[in-house]
Amino acid sequence: MSASDVLIEPTSHGVNILKSAAPILVGIALAVGIQFLLPSTVGPYYSRLVIDAGIAMILAVSLNIVNGMTGQFSIGHAGFMTIGAYTAGSITFYSSLLIWGTAAKHGSFLGSGEWMFVIACLCGGITASIAGFVVGLPSLRLRGDYLAIVTLGFGEILRVVLQQTGKVVDNAETIRNAPLTTFATVPVGGAIGFDGIPKYTSLFWVYAFLAITVIFAYRLKRSSFGRAMLSVREDEIAAQAMGINTSRQKLLAFITAAFFAGVGGGLLAHESGVIISPKDAGFQRSFDYVIMTVLGGRGSITGVMLAAILLSALPEVLRDFERYRIIIYAALLIFMMLSRPQGLFGIHEIWDFFPKSWKTLPWKKSPREEAR
Amino acid sequence: MPTCFATSDSESCISLARDKAPNCLTKSTISLRQFLRLSKVVGILLLAVTSLMSLGCQSRVASTDEIVIGHFGSITGSEATFGISTDRGIQLAIEEVNAAGGVNGKKVRLITYDDKGDPREAGSAVTRLVTRDQVTAVLGEVASGLSLAAAPICQENGVPMISPSSTNPKVTQVGDMIYRVCFIDPFQGSVCAKFARENEKIKATKAAILCDQTAPYSVGLQEEFEKAFIAGGGTIVSKQAYQAGDQDFSAQLTSIRASEPEVIFIPGYYTDVGNIALQAKKLGLKVPMLGGDGWDSAKLGQIAGDALNGCYYSNHYSHEDPSPRVQNFIKLYQGKYQETPDGLAALGYDAARILFSAMKTAPSLGGKDIAAELAKTTGFEGVTGVISMDANRNPVKPAVILEMKDGTPRYVATIAPGE
Amino acid sequence: MADFLQTLMTALAIGSLYALIALGYTMVYGVLKFINFAHSDIVVLGAWLSYSFAIRALPLVGLDAHNPATPPPIWMTAGIFVAVLALCSLAGFLIERLAYRPLRRAPRLNVLITAIGVSLLLQNVGQLDFVFGASPQKMPALLPNWELLRIPFGQGESIRYVVLPLIDCIIFAVSGLLMLALELLIFRSKFGTALRAVSFNTDFAALMGIPVDRAISLTFMLGSALAGAAGFLYVLKFPSMNQPAHSVWVLLGLKAFVAAVVGGIGNVRGAVLGGFIIAFVEQFGAYYISSNYRDVYVFSLLILILLIKPTGLLGSPVREKV
Mind giving me the DSSP string for A203-226? Predict the structure, then answer.
């Protein structure tokens, strides 16, 4: 157990509501700022990249709860994302059809359509966390790479099953009159993917959800739950000896990570120019997120965020290289791993690297001095 | 097992000591050296990214004397062979038009972006083409799923998009900016079903289907064939599936063999069909096989050889067509790339040429004007047939049926729409 | 009955290919405890090298490069086979030396990511025009197209034959021989003892005077040679080759890896057993249930077996002590 994670930070006694709520409010304010300032300054293409980076960060930070903090090894994260995406997508798509008669976007910013979309994303998170519970169960029995291969198997099974689903029904009348058998084949598009989902995802919602995810992950890391998770990562047997229910911690990690992955998937499904398809559940997509967590550093939230930004920007930056694009990407990946095996920030957060004087506000004594 | 205890114990000791060493830092003990090293790495990365960014940011927006068109396709990854073929067809058309003085005196320039066969990447590639590079029109993609991801972006931004070979009906339903030059699944499915039911040599009443379940093209064609075949009085005795790239089809073929069909419909790409034919021959399946335009490639004959004798596929055109537009294209393509063009290259070539002809007659190069001109296309003489656009922005053109004979496709019949 | 026998024979041939590939995974895992995701790309390398050699060698004996009328002399086939093995093991050596060895002391997850990077790199370099190209090719036949067995079933119109082609027997025999050689090497030779010591505990092996780096290099070379052999046999059986970056190669590697895990990863005999089990489940599932869910059978079996026996069928249980 590293000292930095446990010993130094002051434990907050009692629930300080303001302390919990303030960062989220700040995050949401920032998201509003991004929503209204960014597109006009950088144009639609870069705004889109910022949205993609935001979703990648949500997924990477959530995967970090399992891989980085709890030390389990999941390579089925894209599976949770896809479950969330399909759930959220079918909720908005079919409810829009039934309520408004069309699957097009309804209402303006913060209008009724957007709220339906938010609820759909949360529902996506919930179904994904149920899947997370099911996939997490083997973690009670399996260790390390064996668990990894089971999560990988989950993603692949999901991919094949999604390929067998039925065609999207895109007409309100047909749905109302359809026999139940139409729904037995689960009309979410089959091999071609789920198209026609209304495109609600905007910078605001991505960054609002990202703020919630990051703050949740950060608070979790500092909470007793999070410390229990960290202890499972460091030494499972020792953790057990300390009276920590390691099985419960592992399951909790899977469930929370899957929840945020599901929300991220919901956001992705509603992004313009994106079609959720069975391929998304496959292991190749999962690797993208595993790479982000490893490159960021074990359990370092800010490191993982930076890695997510870098890795989602890299393929776009390299776009001009056409056929050499992936080759350069792979070479850079190997180079980064060789030059910095512990990840960008190791186990530290970005502010650990700031000079000490930055960390305490001038009018406030640092907790250490106070303790003295 | 005492040894087990001993080793796992000592091993974990050692690995603990090794792994934990860097973790034993407290916050305040991050040394200056470490900080410098980290900032160096981050710095190098940022420098690399920003320099590449600036390299990429060099204004690619069209100058006034050229027209920029964009192509997005799978240049890398699993489907690279399709994307590269299409790209070559497009480039050939561009060279040709530039050699003839360009479109209305302006040279045409192509920007090709790779999408790895991934819908998400297709979305960002097209956004980049449309909003940053501000292309006049977009060509692409082979796979319907990817075209569907990109089409709304083109529609929203008022940039015409022509898909060379996405056959799913949904693609052009996105809006009035979206066109295609290939025929759609329902037409091709009915052509194949009709041929299977009525051709003298086949006259099948029982058909088996072997479909690529990962390709929307294949799934769509299979559904339409099934509908039309049953409507024509036939029955489907077996439905099997594979995944693009599978090498071993013996389980599916054994199963098909047991169902005793009179024809096997294989709506797949030539990359898989060759293997299927070889294995079917080994299993002693002598039933004729039937496929769609995904079969069209010189590679198919090379791979399958005489294993495909007596098999048929529907296509846009026949290589034997003596008309100069076909022969000219084949000659040009072979001259440039030293290989026989496949169907995708021909469709890419036609998509680009139909775009140029619309640009030439359009009152301006605005998206709306070009799209309006595209909608008016009638009797355009393409390599892949004489093309007229219908009200749904789908081309109306006949299909030809080809028969494989010792590795070369031979013309059998032409089936016009509505027949 | 005919169909059952046919499926059985295919399963045996494919099972031995899975087993060959699985051996590479299991050996690397046994020694370095990490999943070498670049292993399937060595199979691809073996396959495409066989193709490149074949189309260059065939004209030397006056045969058409793409569609030889008769198979080339046996020494040429054997020569191509040996050359492929040699080059593949060289590739394995280089990958280990350049990409994995610098990370020997790093967390295993990093090595895994590096392996993914190496895999991406190999796939896409292979797909460049001046390497192997991005279009599928046909492997020319290097072996006579004999049928060793042809058993008729049924009569008249519905007569069906169960066919046993020569290539299936050769795959079975070559894989069997290679596995036997590996078994002898690992359990009966000095090098094998050293290897087992390294896989048991790297640091103690080093203390005992075993040159750990050399042993690990050799493991990679052996595993890669087996992968190269699998690639060679694979394209002889399935002559229509997919382009190097096709995801189906990765899936092939993944199934072989699943085979290694099912058998108990790190265990050589387990890998062989797992290979056959996976092939049987896949083939019979696809034939008797539905071909749509082929991969589902494989991965469900994997999950099922791991839940019942967390270290695979033949894997030794890992005990933990505080």
Answer: HHHHHHHHHHHHHHHHHHHHSHHH
Rounded to two decimals, the pTM is 0.88
For residue B260, which of C158, C286, C1, C6 has the smallest C-alpha distance? C158
Chains that touch B (3 or more CB pairs under 8 A): A, C
**Continuous segment of H or E residues that includes residue C164:** strand C160-165
**For residues A260 and A62, what is the distance between their CA atoms, to the nearest angstrom?**
6
Q: How far is CA A289 from the centre of its chain?
A: 9
Cβ proximity of B145 and B216 under 8 Å:
yes
Do A152 and C254 count as a contact with CB atoms less than 8 A apart? yes
- Helix, strand, coil percentages, rounded to 5, for chain A: 75, 0, 25
Interchain proximity A341–C106, CB inside 8 Å: yes
Judging contacts by C-beta atoms under 8 Å, the chain A residues touching residue B127 are 44-45, 48, 273
CATH number of the domain located at residue range(s) B66-183+320-397 in this protein: 3.40.50.2300
CA–CA dist A329, A306 (Å, integer): 17
- A102 touching B (Cβ < 8 Å): no
CB C278 within 8 A of CB C313: no
Q: CA B113 to CA B402: how far, in whole Å?
A: 34
How many angstroms away from the CA of C38 is the closest CA of chain A?
Answer: 12
> Where in the sequence of chain B do the CATH 3.40.50.2300 domains occur?
66-183+320-397, 186-315
Note the pLDDT tens digit of each residue in A57-68. 999 999 999 988
Q: What is the pLDDT along chain B (419 residues), one digit of tens a residue?
A: 333 333 333 333 333 333 333 433 334 345 556 656 666 666 666 666 655 555 554 444 545 788 999 999 998 888 888 899 999 999 999 999 999 988 988 999 999 999 988 888 899 999 999 998 999 999 989 988 899 999 999 999 999 999 999 989 989 999 999 999 998 999 999 999 999 988 888 888 999 999 998 888 898 899 999 999 999 889 999 999 998 888 888 888 988 988 889 999 999 988 889 889 988 888 888 899 999 988 988 888 888 888 888 899 999 888 888 888 899 999 999 999 988 888 899 999 999 999 999 999 999 888 899 999 999 988 888 898 889 999 999 998 889 999 998 888 899 888 888 75
pLDDT in tens, C55-83: 999 988 888 887 788 888 899 999 999 99
Cβ distance of C303 and A290 shorter than 8 Å: no
Binding partners of A (≥3 Cβ pairs within 8 A): B, C
Q: Mutation target for A interface from B113, B127, B174, B223: give the one with most A CBs within 10 A.
A: B127
Which ranges in B21-73 belong to alpha helices (H)? 32-57
Closest CB to A322 among B28, B75, B119: B75
How far is residue A369's CA from residue A256's CA, in Å, rounded to a whole number? 36
Q: How would you list the strands of the sheet with B137-139, edge to edge?
A: B107-114, B66-73, B137-139, B161-163, B178-180
Q: Please tell me the CATH superfamily of domain B186-315, with its number.
A: Response regulator (3.40.50.2300)
From the options 2.60.40, 1.10.10, 1.10.3470, 1.10.860, give the CATH code of C1-308: 1.10.3470
Q: How many residues does chain A have?
A: 372
A336 touches chain B (CB under 8 A): yes
For chain A, the structural domain boundaries read: 50-282
| Distance from the A320 Cα atom to the nearest Cα atom in chain C, whole angstroms | 16
What is the three-class DSSP state of B277? helix
What contacts 24+ positions apart, CB below 8 Å, involve A43-49? A43/B131, A43/B132, A44/B127, A44/B131, A45/B124, A45/B127, A45/B128, A45/B131, A45/B132, A47/A203, A48/A272, A48/A273, A48/B123, A48/B124, A48/B127, A49/A312, A49/A313, A49/A316, A49/B124
| Closest CA relative to residue C283, chosen from B60, A131, B250 | B250
Using DSSP, state whether B67 is helix, strand or coil.
Answer: strand
Q: CA-to-CA distance for A70 and C48, rounded, in angstroms?
A: 42
